[in-house]
Amino acid sequence: QVQLVESGGGLVQAGGSLRLSCAASGRTFSRYVMGWFRQAPGKEREFVGGISWSGDNTYYVDSVKGRFTISRDNAKNTVYLQMNSLKPEDTAVYYCAADQRDLIATMPEKYDYWGQGTQVTVSS
Predict the structure, then answer these.
(1) CA dihedral over 74, 22, 48, 108, signed as positive or negative
(2) Residue 117: what are its φ and ψ, rounded to 5°?
């Protein structure tokens, strides 16, 4: 069992930056692929990016490549989403999720555990 708690969301102007954190409970955090998703009002939950167990591999959706970076610190049971050059269309609730398989999946239903989400609002 893994419990996930996101933090770091807020209101930022376009072009600004935010760093989201996702703190996980449980001793086996390092054995989970971690993903970040987002959901805007009236839209489906969207994959943003993911990171492998070791942190050696990452994968991003095209719309955030070059602007967002995912990292993890397994000693602190935490995964991060650094978001730079934010745009109004990045506005959404951001969720972290954990997957026990050794694969960075892009479909939400592949993930086993979810956080409660944190709101990110980018003003123009």
Answers:
(1) positive
(2) 95, 155
Neighbours of 9 (CB within 10 A): 18
Question: β-pairing, 33-39 with 58-60?
Answer: unpaired
pLDDT in tens, the chain (124 residues): 899 999 999 999 999 999 999 999 976 888 899 999 999 999 999 999 999 999 999 999 999 999 999 999 999 999 999 999 999 999 999 999 999 988 999 999 999 999 999 999 999 9
Separation of alpha carbons 116 and 41, rounded Å? 16
- Distance CA(71)–CA(86), nearest Å, equals 18
Helix or strand (DSSP H, E) at 22: strand 18-24
Backbone angles phi, psi at 88, to 5 degrees: -55, -30
Short-list 65, 9, 71, CA closest to 34: 71
Which one-letter amino acid corresponds to residue 21? S
* 113 DSSP 8-state letter: E
Q: Which residue has the tokens 């009002």?
A: 41
Burial (CB count within 10 angstroms: exposed 0-12, middle 13-18, buried 19+), residue 67: middle
